[in-house]
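Pipeline run #58 for the internal structure catalog. This entry was flagged by the ingest filter as a single-chain record with no existing model, so it goes straight to prediction. Upstream metadata was stripped on purpose; only the residue string is passed forward. Reviewer on rotation: M.T. Logging verbosity set to normal.
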Amino acid sequence: MEKTIFEITKMDCPAEENLIRMKLDGISSIANLDFDIPNRKLTVFHSGEIDLIEKSIIELNLGGKKVSTEKSSKRDFKENANQKKLLWTVLVINFTFFIIEMTTGLVSKSMGLVADSLDMLMDSFVYGISLFAVGGTVKKKKRIAKIAGYFQIVLATIGFIEVLRRFFAVKDLPDFSTMIIVSIFALIANGICLYLLQKSKSKEEAHIKASMIFTSNDVIINFGVIIAGVLVNWLNSNKPDLIIGTIVFILVVQGAMRILKLSK
């Protein structure tokens, strides 16, 4: 058994991880893939030549390059059942708050909450693709990714149109108190997710590391919506809500494009 380490400069979230997994799926010489997303490293445990693996990684245009190859005595690559349970927990929390934020966002007329709900949905899609694809076919995984990506783009586009409509034609203020209260609860939920993920950090599992990055970003967005709610009340204007909504919609589209890469 050999161990080859790749540096992949553009790998910074679970979408790239899944992209690489699908690209390398079917190469029989690969025994295991160990992702270190924070450090943008991939360790491939394999037998035989590395040429096909290296060629496949370079073709993804993610800035991949081989760092080193050495012998490895590792043979045990059992999947961690606790990791799957943890990711299921994170997925359920994200999807639950997608429903809560979408509902309260529409009722309170807050585009910030609506946009944040789509960000929660995007996270759910990414975790779902990783979990549902275990043991599944590449074709099935690509089909799920394509549906998820286009669905996110459609929702974000509708959101952009609504932001423009409210910017030019609708001057009603969103309910700032709902924005702040719901975002605080979403922040607490993401904090719980981050705590649970950090508890597993010592296991150095790739999906856990990736999930921590996503959840940390969600915490930042939650703070953004809270600040926007404060500014709506202070300035007596809907502009802060529309601005944060636009920013998050852009992030959602970027995430959707990454997910669509998985379907190619």
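catalog note: Confidence is low (pLDDT under 50) at residues 201-207.
catalog note: The chain has two domains: 2-71, 81-261.
status: ready for reviewer M.T.
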